[in-house]
Structures are given as structure tokens and as C-alpha cells.
Amino acid sequence: MNTHQNKVVEFEDLGIKDYQSSWDYQEKLMKEIIDTKIKNRDLPAEEHLKTSNHFLLVEHPHVYTLGKSGHEENMLAGIDKLKEIEATFVKVNRGGDITYHGFGQIVGYPILDLENFFTDIHKYMRNLEEVIIRTIAEYGLQGERSPGETGVWLDVGKPYARKICAMGVKASRWVTLHGFAMNVNTDMRYFEYIIPCGIKDKQVTSIKRELERDLTAGEMEDIKTKIQKHFADVFEADLVSK
Predict the structure, then answer these.
(1) pLDDT value at position 1?
(2) Which domains does the chain have, with CATH numbers?
(3) Which one of 87, 115, 142, 177 counts the least CB within 10 Å of its CB?
(4) pTM summary value
């Protein structure tokens, strides 16, 4: 067992923050972790410095992001339309295709050194899905995985299958970036301007749409608390507020 493993995860709720500055902050945290790992190369094992882990929750103003393997034609709105709906468009370095972030959507960014947990990206993605599956179960929703497609879905295998949480990540030297976006009170009209994740025959949904009611600000905070609890359980981590 690696005695230098650190399963403490520093948690921050960033509130409402624009996409680019949130991405810059993630990159800064990732660089700090990678710099520590590079330093450790020149140190004897017993003197290795522990690397940090972070978990950010945030809401973004309206933005469409396109992953590095994505197809720009899945963005259906032109520049004029984006201005009209007060949305921006950003190309990012995560996996996956195009997705939407906006108000009423809870976005989670774990910046973890997976060498503190396990070195398996597939397991990491399944763990993130599990966090969301457990969270929405508390609202009577049965989240599922869809074979060959990341994220969390409802009614997989049925004509009305729909995605409630999108995921896209990047990892460098086993340090993760980007994460998940769960639709809670999201204005679903914004998804009409893209082919979400490049998947044409599947719908998107939200907790609001499934429960047929708006969630209060207090309930939004409750969901964040539940996400933290399930994240700590699934990753066997010790979450501490920064």
C-alpha cells in the first residue's frame, strides 16, 4: 500500500461563475498537483510529498462547450442566435462532444490525483456516474448507465430514454479535469440549439421536468450536499470544505 496516498478532498462551492474562469481555476489546481508529482521524481520514495485533491461545484451562465473529439456541426446556433439567447461557445480539452451549461444546472469538477485512489479512468467514470445515480435516487428517480454512452440516463433501452447528467473528462499524469453536469432546474430550451453529446435520437431531461415542479433554492443546496455525501462514499474520500 502506498503510504503517501492522500484521500482528503478539498471541497469548494464556487456559486455562479463563468465557464472560462472556472476552467482556468481547474487548470491552476491541476498544474499544482502535477508540479508536486514532478518534484517527487527526484525524491526518495519515503520523502515523497502528498498530492492534493479538489472537488468543485458550480453553476455557469449560459455556455456551450465542445470537446476535442466533438463535431462543430452539432452546434446548431450561429453567432447571432448565441447573442440573442445570451450564450457563449467555448472549445475545451475534455473528451466528449458538445454540451450545454447554464443556470439551474449543477456542474461538478473533481481535480483528483487518481494515484491517491486507483489508476483506472474507466472506473473513475463509472464512479462519477454512481455518485449521480445515488443522488437522484433520493428524489425517486432511477438513474442508469447506457452501454457505450457516458453519463446518467433514465429509461435506458426504451424509445423515451433521456439523459439527466452529461459527463466529459480529461486526465494528465493521472490527474483529472472537467467532470459532470446534472440538470436540476435547467431551462431545457437551450438544448434545442445543439445535438447534445452528438446523439441525435436521445432526449435530455432534468429533475425539474421529471418531478414536474421547480426546485427551491434550498432544495438546490440540499442536492449539492447529497452530491458531496455520495462522492465521499463512492470514492472513499474525506471531503473537507476549503
Answers:
(1) 42
(2) 8-235 (3.30.930.10)
(3) 142
(4) 0.93
